[in-house]
Amino acid sequence: MDENIRQLVQAIHDSPTHIVLVTAGAGTQALSHLLGVAGASRTLLEALIPYNQASFDDFLGQSPSQYVADETACLMAGRAYTRARWLLAADSPVLGIACTATIATDRPKRGEHRAHIALWQPEQLICHRLLLEKGTRDRAGEEDVISRQIINMLADACGLAASLPLSLAAADSLTEIRYEFGKPVQALLRGELSYFSIEDNGRLHTTNHLPQLLLSGSFNPLHAGHLEMAQTAAALTHKPVAFELPIANADKPPLPQQTVLRRLAQFAGRHAIYVSTAPTFVEKSRLYPGTTFVVGYDTALRILQPRFYQNSQAIMLESLAKIKAQGCSFLVAGRVAENGRFHQASDLTILQGFTDLFQPIPFRKDISSSELRKTGQKGSR
Fold first, then answer.
1. Residue spans per domain, the chain
2. Contact criterion met (CB below 8 Å) for 362 and 232
3. H-helix or E-strand containing 60?
4. Are the beta carbons of 328 and 290 closer than 8 angstroms?
5. CA atoms in the 13 A half-sphere facing the CB of 70
6. Which fold would CATH assign to domain 3-179?
7. Model confidence pLDDT, tens digit, residues 12-68
């Protein structure tokens, strides 16, 4: 092994960061470098090589429109991150890094020889696109360049200043896309944004990007009940579903930035997540007109009780009218009460004029974030 590679990999192993590495098409030499230096168990939680199409789709949870692309690498890195978070019980820094590539093989290729390498951390997503001139290197040479860049990205994410030379040819190119998730969180807390959203592939939107179905919650932690309720609503309506984290509560101070980032990262590579400072559904309806909100029975019950509107039925009715006027509505999932009885939408007392605002969805999952926190169990993979 090249001494520069050995020293840099050793420095990565000496850092506190843990990783899950996923590669397809190229990048396995980077894994060999990580494993070839003592201390790999301090860094590497898991390495996956989903080479077959079925394996690739199973890992992603979907079939990408293009297997070798920036967006696909970002999805892979997001899934790798959520996998790392699941595997590591300790509160240590984790990241997911992924590479999808097409390089020289035993037959001529029409398209470019390229690699897309993405690295996902709670505070940022970085994607590098590496284009390699055809005919300049053999497969081993292209593999070496790509694997060196994977090690460089890991080193940078670990806070190391050193990097490996890539020896790029004149017609090669290396470009970067970077999404910094902390900036919109700060802007939201300063009142400069009404909301922002992060797609499953990490793309950020701050305006004019509205959800069709939205499940709001604190997601501390995100668990199977949230995911299955969202999937049920999506299957019922044939609409894409997203999640929302309101970072402000009428009775509590806003969530700290690092807490927000950790909770948002639970959705990396899996689902779109919206963030707002709107704690009530009246405020949410103004932000997301035309949206259907997916709620549990206990939330629907609070929406229909005057005590949550300054003990005023008039204010409650006015609020429901505003929600309806924005073209919003609710899908209500059943929930088990403290007495053990299962309640569903048909048990709600809904005043005349608002019955069409609440529709049932056939769902039951007896799980809650608070119970998971009490028992110390993990959330969803």
1. 3-179, 182-375
2. yes
3. helix 53-60
4. yes
5. 15
6. Maf protein (3.90.950)
7. 999 999 999 999 999 999 999 999 999 999 999 999 999 999 999 999 999 999 999
